[in-house]
Amino acid sequence: MSRILQMLLIAGLCLAGFARSADATNLLANGSFEDDLNEWHSWGETHVHCDELDIGPQDGRCALKMFQNWRESDKTSKVWQDVPVTVGTSYVLSGHLRNGYADGKDAMEPDNSAFLQIQWLDADGNPLPDPHASDPINHLTPSGQWFFKSLEVIVPELDPPVAMARVAAIHQYLGTGLDRGSSWFDNLAFEPVPEPGTIVMLCSGLVGLLLYGLRRRNG
Ligand SMILES: [Ca+2]
After folding, report:
1. Which of 139, 188, 192, 217 has the smallest count of CB within 10 Å of its CB?
2. CATH of domain 25-193
């Protein structure tokens, strides 16, 4: 095999490796709510619905429905998981959100909104400042359609240091009365973003080793 052919082969393998690592692992368990609310903490009105005729899930058979937490003074409803993270690493939180049913039934009234959120925690589980939120959906969002939402964040250097991310799906109510309407969530994922620099370094090392091997064999 010519050296050029070998180099092309290595470049191809490196590209394949990059594509593979870009297909990152979801750090959330049961992110599609196919196993009810297992693995999730929850607060307020959080209900997993499966196999409903008038709403299709975005993924699998089931999706999460939330609405105003009318039983408590804190009117927010939410589900969340705490996930270990590495300072300096970039993560993407994504998911599909939906306002009510296809025919406008149970669509959110004003003062309701729904979004995804990342809150940093220290090693003792205490919240650290400035949570990050995705674009919300609200009463202005067309009902009955799934919308993809995502946000990418780099874990900051804080004091005390960040140890975990609290990854949450939130239905927020900021009014004082009782406003109807549901938000739906499905197919949530929290994934580390692979660093291209690391892969380039690995590939360069591999090419170097191959060239060294070829020289030794030819010499
Ligand atoms: Ca699902």
Report:
1. 217
2. 2.60.120.260
